Structures
1.
Amino acid sequence: MASHFAWFLYSVLVFLACQDGAHSQNSRLDIQILEELSKKVEPWFTNGSKIRQFGVLFLPGKKQLKDVNCHRINYNDAKGVNGDCSYAGVAPNTNETSGIKETLRHSEWQLIYTALTPMLQKWTEGDKINCPETLYLYTRLAPDFNLNRVQQGYTCTQAIVCKIGDIFFNASCPRPRIVVGFSEVVKKYKKEACMGYKLMQMNNITEYHLTSKLPDKALDCDAEV
């Protein structure tokens, strides 16, 4: 009996070890892709200053990332978008994007609400439906989870968690594996960033803080803010 139990325990440990190895391999590939996406954006300048915040949306499968030219979208305008990769900066503030709707200016909101549907249309053209299995979204700053706009649904974290799946469903595609990465957290918004980070984890969305020193580039939500 003891030998049978020992063999069973060994089998379980081997399975878990294999699972951990696969997870680490996925993490390394995710981080590599996100870091490459962060370099895909052409320098943008406004009044002599480089734009600090931008986002990049990548649907892998049709092309290798090294062969992809990302398409820049303007506010509410996906003209010329391709099916592989799009990027956006923060749009100018207008009456349409003021107050509770300020998030509409954000790059990740624009990529999801403006670029993603026409990108998927490029995948599903013709008789045979072809759907990406993974979606990568890189942003320079952590996706916002502004508590003043949460109840109305105007945060980029909520767009990532709720809207992406809806868009894929409307395109007759299964929900993809969603991978999000960012480089910086504004200190005064660290608490909200951590709340958004945990919300994504609860919804099976993988998120990486690319400059983190923690294993697998986790956001350090235990550190003092």
2.
Amino acid sequence: MLLKFAFPVVLSGAFFGLPIAGLPMTELQALNRELGRLCSQPPREALSVCRIHARLVGSL
């Protein structure tokens, strides 16, 4: 089941092992918002991306 996500993907101290200071937080938040919109009613081609997004958000 896919859920809507409005939370920033990056809330912890690291993202895929990279320090947060080196990542553009506003771009990551924008990406998370767009993925949340896409995954609220995803086309078939986006299902795997939405599953990955759900796992990332769920792991925080």
3.
Amino acid sequence: MKEIRFLAISLLVALSMGFSSCATNIPISLLCNEQHIEIYINEEYVGRGLINYVVPKGTDYINVSCKENGIEIYNRNYYVKGKKNQLFELDIPKDYRYSSGQQIKPQIK
């Protein structure tokens, strides 16, 4: 009887460890070579240049946007599930155009 109880508890512990490992935090990195560009993840400012970010568990996609002088110049969704320790390079276009036809050129500081 004790052996069955021990096996049942062992099986329960093994299963709970297996399920918890399926939904863990995912560390990723983002790189923007233009140091003056502000990087946002899910509308939260995270920095400039090389960013190390931990994606909360259970998240499959993140929204990355970039701003220059308060104007959004880049916006993209990234699939991050299973991309542990992946480097995402942000390729910002050199000439920015908006639907109004206005063109904005990056200002180097």
4.
Amino acid sequence: MKEIFIADDFSVDELTEKINNLMSKWSVKLLDINGPSWVIYNQDMEVKFLFFFEVDFNDIETRIKLEDLKLNVIHHIESLKDDTAYRDNLINSVFID
């Protein structure tokens, strides 16, 4: 498993490209979006990548960037037309003070 830490100054476009490229390269079964932790599982449900967002969920601009990123990645997943799935729990009261 490879852990990738993302600071709050991330570029939506650059990170979208990075995640989409990883998902296209690997045989991905599931992208589990759970607040600051985005986990990519392979077909055997082994964790291949963990993206951990070290960001302030109370900051509205950061949340907008995260939503944009999430929508970009989900659009890519749906364009793959395979059995890749995603679970979305990006914004939850647990992650917001």
